Amino acid sequence: MTVLQSDITINVDGSSMPAYIARPDPASGPHSAVIVLQEIYGVNKEMKRITDLVASVGYVGLALNYYHRADPAHFQPYTEQGTERGFEVAATVSRKTLREDVAAAIDFLNCQDYVKKSKIATWGFCFGGTVAFLTATLPGLAAAVCFYGGNIAQPLPVGEPEALADAKDIQCPLLLVYGEDDPYISAQDVARTNRALAEAGKRFQIQEYPGVGHAFFRESSEHMHSAVVADAWDLVQAFLKRVFA
User: Angle, to 10 degrees, between the axis of helix 95-110 and the axis of helix 127-135?
Assistant: First the structure.
């Protein structure tokens, strides 16, 4: 499948939000779309790889730099210093700004003739997994996929309450994926998330993989396990197929 790739900007209340888009040849469209929500490191090679992966199976992929107000060129290495800077920038975003940015991305996609209207999901990683959870409260989303979202059951870097506080307001099905050996997300966090979503009557699925830690889907991660990655990708594809049907 031919994939078209480009760097774009999306207007958010007068601010320009950098984004990366990958999409199948428009002649084969329109297509459902997946908004890719970055880790704390920026829209880097890894996030573009995942966006391309989404496009390779027939979806429009759109990766957002939701740090654009504080650092529009945010790009950090996977190092201790990069992690420190990433958390500093993550502490500048709030529920309000994150929802504004994802809402703007939804509006942008719905205006493109190569996108199926209202067939839009999110897929977030690490802090982006938290963002996917938070923005699942927005109208116009078909689903949200949250990979190891560390602030779903812990306070946000900006100091706001955990994303789980908004569980009752979620409007779409969720897929939440974790590694059981994640040092940042405890078994108690996962259990509390499960319980809160069930009590709120939400449609959700939780998948935990034994023997893997945080960021296991990242291509450069020391925790990457090819069999787990393949299974998780199959799980995501099956979930998207259901919600987009």
Answer: 70
Q: Residues 137, 39: contact at Cβ < 8 Å?
A: no
Task: State how far the Cα of 78 lies from the Cα of 81, in Å rounded to an integer.
Answer: 8
Q: 13-40 b/e with 16+ CB inside 10 Å = b? A: eeeebbbbbbbbeeeebbbbbbbbbbbb
pLDDT in tens, 125-172: 999 999 999 999 999 999 999 999 999 999 999 999 999 999 999 999
d(CA 161, CA 151): 9
Question: Could you give phi then psi for residue 6, rounded to 5 degrees?
Answer: -165, 155
CA distances from 142 to 63, 106, 131 (A): 17, 11, 15
Domains by residue range for the chain, with CATH? 3-244 (3.40.50.1820)
- Percentage of residues in the chain with pLDDT exceeding 90? 91
Could you tell me the pLDDT band of residue 34, with boundaries at 50, 70 and 90? very high
Q: Which two tokens stand for residue 102?
A: 């994802």
CA nearest neighbour of 126 among 82, 167, 96, 165: 82
